[in-house]
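Researcher: Structure for this, please.
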Amino acid sequence: MAIGTENKTGATILNLVYDTVNHALNVVTTALGLASDATQNDPVTDTITQISHEAKDFDGAALPNSVDEGDATRPASTKHGVTYSMPVNEDGSKSPINLSGYMDVEIQADNAGLATESGGNLDTIAGDTTGLNTKEGTTGEASDVDGTRAAQLRYVGETIETARVLLATIDADTGSLDGKTPTLGTAAMAAASPMTIATDDTQFGVVGEAASSTGGVHAQLRDIADSVDGDVSLPPATHTSPEDFIAAFTTDVTITLTGHPTITDNSQIAYIVYIPTGGSGAGRLINGQNGVTLTEAAGVITVNGGGTPFAASDEYQVGLKLQDKGYDDTNDVIKNIKQNLDRGDYTDAVAYTTFTPDDVTYDDGAVLTLISAKTLTLYWSKTASTNDANNIKLIGLTAADGATDYQELSAGSPVGGRVLLASNVYEVPKAADVNFYVFDVSGLNFGRFDIAKATDDAPGSDATFTTYVSYGY
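Model: Predicted structure, token format:
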């Protein structure tokens, strides 16, 4: 019986042989040898020790004998023994070769060393398709991502309009670029050499208009002398024309101020808004913006760096940033000057009752609301009576429809320590007259005037009173 084992550390096979006659276990060794050694610079023979590859034809189809991820594989090479390899990044997650089998290439701005099939440099192929693939697109058109259309590059000196455009989108699954061709001005597309693009190009917006994000409309920049309008706010100003002073045209770059406060520093000139003759094309000149400076000397403001914006008959608003109005710089307080003296509030006179008293019985006037009033003025114009004077009295009421009359009283001079209160009756002579009297009604809620004849001793004509009242609060 023989038991075999392999010596893994050397080229030797050990065999254990049991001798059944002598009942002994013998060890038999067999040495392994190489047909030939592989030595540097020796000729290669068929029997040299080597690593073998599986030959696979690179014919456009997927290479055969694919296995699942994580399984063992055999190295592969071409039928001529050239080992297949693939460029990847450090962790093998990305490759410059896309899933369509094409390599993504970035051409730098410096084209030195780039060549075409015909041997010319990059800048020699503008407008010339010599040596390019026959499937090329039009000049300046982007190549197709699937390789069916090659790009023709523009001439190195050709003018390319500046615009914010979408150049490409990246497919999140394949990593390929979906190329976009920017829209160019119609004049630029028709030329193959440097040129000046006309401002009336149909794909250019109006002067100062922003470019569109799709490249369909290109922007035209303003001249530096143009004022900044739109969303730019005017700086604050404490004094402006024509409210606080007058600003008038002097020359195409100067205006003269009249009646203006003292300007001690040019930085106090905030801005000029000018309305040109005809009322259209108004503009703004802001001191210190867009290269514009405004200076003042002897009441004349001069525009520097803003072109020649003014013309005769223009209208102007000049803003000055000076001390705030109503501010007392010496005492560091805001002035508060009372222009009108305090006064009570008085109402206009309104028509009251017409009285024609014919005896000593009082005729009642209309009830008056006196709440919050301090004074009540009675105006009257009376005709003459033949023989009798007339009496007037003020009656107080606790309610508009109060049944009890409370007559006004006045205090007499103290006599023996006592003050006599007497009812007030105001006598008006019989002659015609026009007069008024102010009554104190503080604390009264309602009241009225009553008028009667003072006496009725002799017949004759009676007086007629036309009256008005007004209130003081």
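Researcher: Any notable elements?
Model: Residues 365 and 449 are 5 Å apart (CA to CA). DSSP finds one helix and 33 strands in the chain.
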